[in-house]
């Protein structure tokens, strides 16, 4: 049975698995949240008591990375277990095609009841891969997107194990300061990265961003409480992640840690061997699909490029991945970049380095962007704060995250790091071949002006699909 927007449609009955054979699974996805803006990851002032408690009683992953720092491509990659360029949904607002295989449909085939609620952003075609989808549009009765989460949990089939995809709108812009927020932050709470100007406007805006994180935290707490109320918390695996980093000019859509390193907190009383454990093992968001199917005892389809990290729940110190790979494609503005992250280093290859690193269009909604433009034009920003305006930019970037956590010093041209650069570049080349990655034969037109943020005449909604664009260009 499939229900979309709470409307039932007839379907085929599926085999039922005894509830004690496989864990229930809940994936909670924050929108535009950097990993280190949570108390459990060391932020001293952001109010996140529920997430902090989850980490204290469960498990925290300290080296988890997304495949993209862009909303819909990141979500499509998670659901399919494939790198964005192989989902045919690698550009912002491209719908996930019906031809793609999702782990949710494989869980259904294994006897799971599957539901999704909150932000969707993956198109209409694959909603049928869930038993129920309750999509929440921003501002439509719910600023956080969590208004139907509890109802979905009540509606689920109580005789089957279940999978829930719970997607928040927090902390995506625009924000509504003071509305339905459990905690009010102040300028004194803000830890401002050095690549932003320390102005009053930025401090106030970051405080509002923190408020949205606190609301997301409260919604996560309600999910855990509901599971406990229903008596299923012990054997329910809950994983909290983000789709990409914070909605600021040098974070969201970038290939830095602030864009693609994700919080990754696990609550699973029955499955976590040691409470409060942490793992430094590198995992990728494409590994979620294989892990969920492994836990459910379901076969992993050949389409999935990730692998199961189930073993880390009992052995956090076990090595899992040597590298994590991520990509940058069109997101409001054209760009094409690839990156590889090892335990200590990040290598970035900017294929369109003639273009500036223009941020996402939603970062231009707020006056912080106008202030950044004004300060840049007045020569009042340092080179790191001016990064979104610089062109051409470096083709190759290499950062030592141990000594340079904000990725400010590019070591790619330093002879002392030539061996490390070559190692990571070679790893990236191997991944490009293995994943059949490519550079498009044509460039996508920008949706907005790169400075003013005004919409361009070429902007189209909905965006043409990958096939439509390639056919129109003669490249298909």
Structure description:
With 476 residues, this protein is of the alpha/beta class. The chain is built from ten helices and 16 strands. The strands form three sheets. A ten-stranded mixed beta sheet has the order 2-1-7-6-8-3-9-10-4-11, with helices on both faces. β1 and β2 form a beta hairpin. The radius of gyration is 21 Å and the shape is globular. The N terminus is likely disordered.
Average pLDDT score = 92
In whole angstroms, the N-to-C terminal distance is 37 Å
- Radius of gyration, rounded? 21 Å
Report helical residue fraction.
Answer: 10-25%
Which sequence of SSEs, written as H and E, runs from N to C? EEEHEEHHEEHEHEHEEEHEEEHEHH
Please tell me what the overall shape is.
Answer: globular
Placed side by side, the strands forming the largest sheet appear as 2-1-7-6-8-3-9-10-4-11
Structural class: alpha/beta
The fraction of residues assigned to DSSP E strands is 5-15%
Unreliable segments of 5+ consecutive residues: 1-19
Q: How many β-strand stretches? A: 16
- Profile the largest sheet: 10 strands, mixed
How would you classify the quaternary structure?
single chain
Number of helices: 10
